[in-house]
Design brief:
- The two termini are about 15 Å apart.
- It is built from 9 helices and no strands.
- The chain has about 210 residues and is an all-alpha fold.
- The protein has one domain.
């Protein structure tokens, strides 16, 4: 509970809310210019929103560190990155960019934002791997165990359902293309999943 009430977590949640509002503004501006017409350039027209979503995930992880691991004091991110290999960061960047591009063809728009918890957990796992390497805690890993994994999947599914249902209600009231409200709501509603995953990993290094 102390983790959830920390200033860092509160700041991270506030930034996520700002990103969500920013995504809705971008969607409205694009629609005002007729940006949803024509399928050939749709990916490029929606690229700013998708990039904003990834930036929101990374910003949340950066701001919530190290509190969501249950740690009060830790080296700065800059220090960790200087001490670590760039291999895991390169792998994370590649995964995020690939999912960003493939998402437009692999998933219908209302379910496109299911990638948000996947991307968030990937970012948290990468940061945790770098952090435990810095600490020399070789026994700690990024797999929290089957019970935690099942709980994460259930939480992610419920959060996604809430985002879709709330998004549909907002679309009925304010209009707009199918799924754009759901995509903006996904990360704010998935933050409990990301915090829960980070706390599960942090228990391995609890002092």
């Amino acid at each position: 509970m102390n983790v959830l009430l920390s200033f860092e977590i509160g700041s991270a949640l506030a930034v996520v809310a700002m990103f969500a509002m920013g995504e809705l503004v971008l969607v409205r501006l694009r629609l005002a210019r007729g940006g949803d017409s024509g399928s050939s350039l749709r990916l490029w027209r929606q690229l700013p929103e998708m990039t904003l979503r990834v930036a929101a995930v990374l910003s949340f992880v950066a701001l919530a560190f190290p509190n969501f691991f249950g740690v009060r004091a830790a080296p700065s991110l800059v220090e960790l990155l200087q001490e670590s290999s760039w291999v895991p960061l390169a792998a994370l960047s590649s995964a995020l960019v690939t999912s960003l591009c493939l998402s437009r063809t692999a998933l219908p728009r209302p379910h496109l934002a299911l990638l948000v918890p996947v991307q968030g957990c990937a970012a948290i796992a990468t940061l945790f791997a770098i952090y435990v390497s810095y600490l020399g805690a070789r026994s700690a890993g990024v797999w929290p165990g089957v019970p935690f994994a099942v709980a994460l999947a259930v939480m992610a599914g419920i959060s996604h359902w809430l985002a879709v249902e709330l998004g549909r209600e907002l679309e009925r009231r304010f209009g707009g293309p199918s799924g754009h409200f759901a995509c903006a709501l996904e990360l704010p509603l998935q933050t409990p999943v990301l915090i829960y995953y980070a706390m599960a990993l942090g228990r391995q290094i609890a002092m």
